[in-house]
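We modelled the chain as a single entity of 573 amino acids. Its sequence is:
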Amino acid sequence: MATVAATGIFSERSIRRARLGSGLVMFLFVLLHLSNHALGLISVSVADDGRRVFLAIWRNPLGTTVFYGAVFVHVTLVLRAVYVRRSLVMPAGELAQIVLGISIPLLLMDHVIGTRIAHTLFHYRDDYETIVRLLWITSPGSGWRQIVALLAVWIHGCIGLHFWLRYRPWYDSVAALLLAVAILLPVLGILGFIEMGRTIAEPAYEGMVNTDRYQENLNIRYYSNPEAQRQIALIRVGLYGSFSGALLLVIAARTWRRWRERVDQVTVRYPGGEAIKVPRGFTVLEASRLGGLPHYSVCGGKGQCSTCRVQILSRYDDLPAPDKLEQSTLRRIKAAPDVRLACQLRPTHDLTVVPLLVAATETTLPPNTQETSPGREREITVLFCDIRHFTSLTETRLPFDIVFLLNRYFALVGNAVEKAGGRIDKFIGDGAMALFGIGNSPEEACRQAITAAAMIVRDIEKLGAELADELSRPLHIAVGVHTGPAVVGTLGYGRVRSVTAIGDTVNVASRLETAAKEFDAAIVISESVAVLSGADTAGVESREISVRGRALPLKVYVIPSDKAGELLKGKDG
């Protein structure tokens, strides 16, 4: 039974959403702040005009509450994550995100105290003329520190956004644009700051602006007020002390927990004979990482994918029950009762596990490969096609003639698939497999696959007519099309690697191609393909076929060659 913590308001999913939401608020703040800095490339006054819009959003009761509330929640949850994580052995990306997250308050605290807090308490004028003069002329070391802080915040936010978005089906199509923005915006912001600093440093700048305003921007009354300086110093000590104390408290709590856990450990055993002892409360994934064993975890151990799943070979019925997040993932992959997510399972006794996706040892891999990436799940459409009666067609022909025929066939299949917007996955003998939907919607993928199927049937008929005098029987094709979730990734070994798809969707598409042969038809598509594509199935024969591994029959549409070109009339009008 899931615990209250796992299902209530303080469940891991709720906490993760709170951290994500607070992080997005802070990222929006930084994005607008850098954009405001970039206006300094035009002039200081234009940057100040932009600043007034920026302050209208954030320097009001609602904006202040939302932003500083997000800061408090995010920092608190980051410290909690450091405490909850049982092992600090982790991939470089996760480590960078945590280190940057902890360093950001230390880098930015002085800037917040010297601007917002000083302005609120003592009416300190914190416009661009004042702050840039301070950071560029009076205290250039603080200026460089501010640049480092902005980069740390931006990189931390970009890593978090990447981890959040990388499994969205549309992410690949906009990743290049987002990367360009991620690089360009901080560069423009820093250049804007530098240009404003150079402008203000010019001796002639004082005479170019209103003298009274210039004197006011120097904040002479603030700097000559001993009481103001004393209070700001106390606030600085309090904020730095509070954060440092919280961080030391987390470290002390981790140290105390580790000391206590040394006498309360469990052993996780692996198929290779490895036995890793970890404190009770560690996850199986943390045990693998602690022992230096390769273990897939594409989502970073957040329970949002199933690549870290393991099969329990010892007692599994008395292990802690999966919480809602893990249950959802396991239910989606139709996992057996003895299969659990390594990143979520915290064993309470010794157990033996078998990782179901075996990771290669990274040190044995060639550079710049994707071997350690098991791919990602996508909604795709798969097309299989095969020449019918190919053996009898070629049994009396010379090998060179067979090669010629196959190359003509492969060329027309490849051309049809690419023109429709798909990609050839592989050729197997006289069969071919093509993928659609890697970079677009399932609806568009289904339409593309049906278009490609109709083109293949049409071109095969033309090829058969062209070679009629040389063939012992007419040339016919069988095509099967199905859509659904599949894992798309790079498979193979060494240089023989390619992007392919695996999963139930691929198996069903292959079965439909076989069904096309059984029904003496050109194309067989599943009902889901017909619905998503908007194909005109009026008057098209439908059947139900059995598919190995499926309890219920699958409804399909059987299309003869003379109707292959009419499938999309209902959609195209």
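As a brief sanity check on the tokenised model: The chain has three domains: 10-258, 265-355, 376-572. The longest helix spans residues 226-261.
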